[in-house]
Amino acid sequence: MALVTMHELLQDARKRKYAVGGFNVFNFETLGAVVEVAEELKTPLVLGIPERLFKFVDVDTLGAAMVRAAQKASVPVALHLDHGHTYEGIMKAIRWGFTSVMFDGSSLSFSENLKRTKEISRIAHSLGISVEGELGYVGCYDSLRDLNEDNLVKPEMAADFVDKTGVDALAVAVGNNHGAYRGAPKLNFSRLSELSAAVQVPLVMHGGARLTRDEYRNSIQSGITKINIATDMSQAAAERLKAELAKNPNANYIHLMSVVKKGVKDSVRKYMLCFDCISKAI
């Protein structure tokens, strides 16, 4: 089924009430792990790489590998630049052949975020590429005490933002956060439902790791159509690697790569089983 736009995937998810997993990869092992699980479970997939990773890996080579993996996949795959912050980073992903880009202007003022997202949408849409915007602060919180009403997106602002930018999907802050913090997330499902009613585009949850199955289902029923997973995959890889080295300190690197890949696959499978996306590949 191969390479598709994120717009195509998320519109189907919104219609049929499931969430597509947005999984960020950071090397060939994680790339293979995510695609293999999606094919095993027959799920649509958003395969991503964040711009911040550009400084750590050979992104041109990894980007080309992602395009090739998507083209060969037996399920529909959208290739997505996650958390693009610069024009240069977004243009790089477009040149690779990605079908979706995100401009993350959430740290900017509302007016500046709107202005820059609108310009990215104009360029991307002229090339048939989907755009995700972000509104509200989805930060990295150390404690639940840092989450408050001011961090949540207001429906009227979301509607204005979507109308003026023309984005295909909107990442929203409703009590979710990136990374990991102490305690359990406290999602505002009533606000999420209000946002879904206010805008006519699919909603995205960033920082979607380690919720309960009921919380995922409530999120989906309240309008979420893509759930991003990144940090938890990295942690799963690290935990599996440490456990294997403790058990087998003389293990060679080739063996360790296979152990890491299995750990990532187990993590990805766990999340996909919660997103109601099994056998939804179109």
TrEMBL record:
Residues annotated as the enzyme's active site: 82
Reported cofactor(s): Zn(2+)
GO biological process terms on file: carbohydrate metabolic process
Amino acids binding Zn(2+) 1: 83, 178, 206
One Pfam family here: F_bP_aldolase
Details of cofactor binding: Binds 2 Zn(2+) ions per subunit. One is catalytic and the other provides a structural contribution.
InterPro entries xrefs: Aldolase_TIM, Class_II_FBP_aldolase, FBA_II
This protein's record includes keyword Metal-binding: yes
Transmembrane segments annotated in the record for this chain: none
Record-level Gene Ontology MF annotations: aldehyde-lyase activity; zinc ion binding
Binding site for Zn(2+) 2: 104, 134
Keyword set, alphabetical order: Metal-binding, Zinc
UniProt xrefs under NCBIfam families: cbbA
UniProt-listed PANTHER family: D-TAGATOSE-1,6-BISPHOSPHATE ALDOLASE (PTHR30304), D-TAGATOSE-1,6-BISPHOSPHATE ALDOLASE SUBUNIT GATY-RELATED (PTHR30304:SF0)
Name of the molecule in the record: Fructose-bisphosphate aldolase, class II
Source organism of the structure: Sporolituus thermophilus DSM 23256
